[in-house]
Give the backbone structure.
Amino acid sequence: MKSYNFLIFFSIVFTIYSAVNFYIFARGWQALPAGSAVRKIYLVLFIFVFLSFISGRILEKYHISVISDILVWTGSFWFAAILYFFFIVVFFDVLRTINASTPLYPSFATFNYERTKLIVFAISVLSVGGLLTYGYINAKSPEIKNLEYKISKNAGELKSLNIVMISDLHLGTIIENSRLSSIVEKVNSLNPDIILLAGDILDEDLGPVIRNNLGETLKNFNSKYGTFGITGNHEYIGGVEEACQYLAAHNVTMLRDSVIKIDNAFYLAGREDKDISTFTGKKRKSVDALLKEIDKSLPVILINHQPTEFDDAVKNEVDLHLSGHTHYGQLFPLNFVTNLVFELSHGYLRKGQTNFYVSNGVGTWGPPVRIGNSSEILNIRLNFGY
């Protein structure tokens, strides 16, 4: 049944993907001179980028190689290019429709219309290429967000706690060892007491993670209390048990609907990802059940990959609730979509006595590109006491 549901989902996504690609292809084809060699090159290149991501992912399942890497990287960039080419094509189609009834085009554009179309084509390609280059550089340069919150509870002998939280690493073909090493170095430079990985640590397939030995780099995280992680939807997409076993073997303590009391001073709780029911048919614990047995006079930190069920956290006296998942859209203007879907899709919110923060994430999914937002590493200082 689950395979059938996945087949339906994939068919719908592939149909939409194909339709958008055909729309972009057709408008580009019309802009190029009829019968020219450029059209043949355009056709071959378009077919290549159209099929590259799917081909690369399939190839990775059987044999990870330079070829599969090239295909995945090409297809990942193409996902971002599709979005902006689509906006460009729609803009000019709307403009052309308006121009048919109310002439808008300047005389120099209509004097040699074929040449104008070719110039617009070239400018569009260069513009999208420049935008993706900027977005790639931006995605590789995470900001360190310094936050400080007062928690009106005593934490034993502990007066403050220095937390570093990152979400959405998406380790794999795109986020590989050099990128992870840079992130680890930045995290360790903040001298954290505890490191929290708020889900989507791995990017679906475990194969590239093992091949690149990313686990050994994960071991380089250094903090007083250790590194703790939770599952995200991508751990479930790729195979949650194998993912969690791998992470646990490389010094990441996975909190799977479980709570740990640290230094007799505070509680750290981690939820299973919301998509557990989609992939396993099981249900995750409610916040009530998860925190039922703890002493809520001590500070409580809850990590929940997808920013949901905020009211349950408030009711259960959670002091700090941390999430990721949204990437804040990753590509402008998709942040408007995440704002519609989630109560909080990025940044800080206080409800009752609970402090909520949803991170943009430090990695990327699909396109290794961020436009309109930045990758981030959260450095949170909690001060305890009345």
